[in-house]
Amino acid sequence: MILGEHWKLHDDVTIQKIDAAAVRLLTRSGARIEHDGLLDMLEGAGCRIDRSGRRCCFTERLVRDAIGHVGGKTTEDVKLPAGWNSQVHMGHGGNFPHLVDWPSGRRRLATRQDVIDMAKMGHSLPEFTHVGKVVTTHEVDHRVEPLWDALQLARITDKPIGGGEIFHADYIEPLVRMGEVVTGRPGDTSLVAACDFFISPLILDPNQAACFVEKRRFGIANVPGTMPVAGMSSPVTVAGTVVVALAELIAGWVLGYLVNPDLPAGGIVSTGSLDMRTLAACFGSPEAMLQDVSVVNICRRLYGIPVHAAVGYTDCKRPGLEAAFLKMLPLVGIPFGTDQRIGGGGLLSAGQDYSPVQHMLDTEMEKAVQRFWGHYEVSEDTLAVELTEQVMRAAATNFLDTDHTARHFGAEQWYPRWFDRTRWQGDEVERQGERRMLERIDRYCKDAIANYQKPDIDPVKIAELKNIFLAAEKQILGSNVTCL
User: Fold this and answer.
1) Domain check: are 330 and 406 in the same one?
2) What distance in Å separates the CA atoms of residue 459 and residue 116, rounded to the nearest whole number?
3) Is residue 418 in some structural domain?
4) Residue 128 in contact with residue 90, Cβ under 8 Å?
5) CA distance 151 to 188
6) Of 33, 189, 315, 379, which has the most beta carbons under 10 Å away?
């Protein structure tokens, strides 16, 4: 077991300054909350409301009461149990509008068939424990597209299925009903992502506000999200962006406290920085990482609220080792409390694109990381003192032919599936090494789709899911227009 404590990115005086600055924003300038019901609740709690500007200035007492009620759930202690499984799995899901084809490198809007093919791939490959939508298609009306996705996934796989981000409140209830049918659990919300993102600086727009209220109605944890971009939607300084991000999370926790104080609270932070040369928002920059880690560290230490840093938002546009490196780089934040995993499987272009080839590379790297965190066993057998003495007495230097090596090498060592560990094969071979690796991965993914075998799925469940979709589509769109 790995034991220790999270590192401190700031001293206590500094985090108190950052907290005071965030509270000042909330109490003096406030947040724009574009939802009458939430504004009514805030006004009833003593906040100053500007109805014409849809703006709320919070009271510090309400802020402290809310944080005190929902916080205090984290610890600075780190306890990572020993143990490692060479069959590490990675998530399969997302909400990416584009698919990057390989080897052409063509970037295109995802189609209905792409949604189906990616689900078949997720079902067929042992690397994935569950199947998500991964890509979002422009060929289905966005107001019902998550419902159509859920129906397709349920038709394709008997693995657990997942949903994507929520942008319209109207489809939350039918998604919950679909989740109940798929899992057989009353009130199942596994198809509804918990997060509700602010628009920086400090704006909760009508759609997201309506989603926020509807999710709380179904008892979904309160997980506000924040994505300020330094130099564009927040100050260019790291400290200024941390303050905006922190204020948005606090505003979300206060709203959740008023709507349903008994729900657990968390948060998601994924800040960026604006490259002043290209005017591109960069979510994988070292400044963005520093901002994210700061927010996570402050929320854990000062409030006791777990916040997840979505650090897998690499800015790389092409699948390959560059993208893998950029996804590995955020692991430097682990000592400060960020996740111990590589995020954003298959993600490219800061969440705009999905690449199955990149997903397999990310899985390869994730297995390596998990091998490190798996630590190692210390026992008489693994210390192998007697064996070492035997080899030494025999005046040998080779442990390769021992029974001990045969018993342990598979459990002790990580063996990459795609990375090349062979010796130098010549200039021409090595020059094409990465391309050949990507081609092999591409073939692996396409073979998984081509060789997909439909599992035995209950037709009664599928019929019930179809009825839920058709009823919801008619209610939301006014008629049934989607080809099933």
Assistant:
1) no
2) 18
3) no
4) yes
5) 16
6) 33
The enclosing domain of 167 has a CATH number of 3.20.20.480
Q: Is 271 part of any domain?
A: yes
Domain span at residue 246 reads: 1-375+423-484
Task: Decide: helix, strand or coil at residue 406.
Answer: helix
Q: Is residue 339 part of a domain?
A: yes
pLDDT per position as a tens digit, 1-33: 566 677 788 899 999 999 999 999 999 999 999
Mean pLDDT confidence for 296-320: 89
Give the Cα separation of 264 and 304 in Å (integer).
12
Mean pLDDT of 215-227: 96
Q: Residue by residue, what is the 3-state secondary structure of 271-333?
A: CEEEECCCCEEECCCHHHHHHHHHHHHHHHHHHCCCEEECCCCCCCCCCCHHHHHHHHHHHHH
311 and 404 both lie in a single domain: no
**Of 305, 304, 328, nearest in space to 316 by CA:** 328
User: In this structure, are 440 and 395 located in the same domain?
Assistant: no
Same domain, 333 and 215: yes
The tally of domains found in the chain comes to 2
Amino acid (1-letter code) at residue 119:
A
Sign of the alpha-carbon dihedral angle for 363, 369, 373, 374: positive
DSSP single-letter state for residue 233 = T
Q: Determine the Cα–Cα distance for residues 40 and 249; give it in Å rounded to an integer.
A: 20
394 and 467 co-located in one domain: no
The reported pTM is 0.91
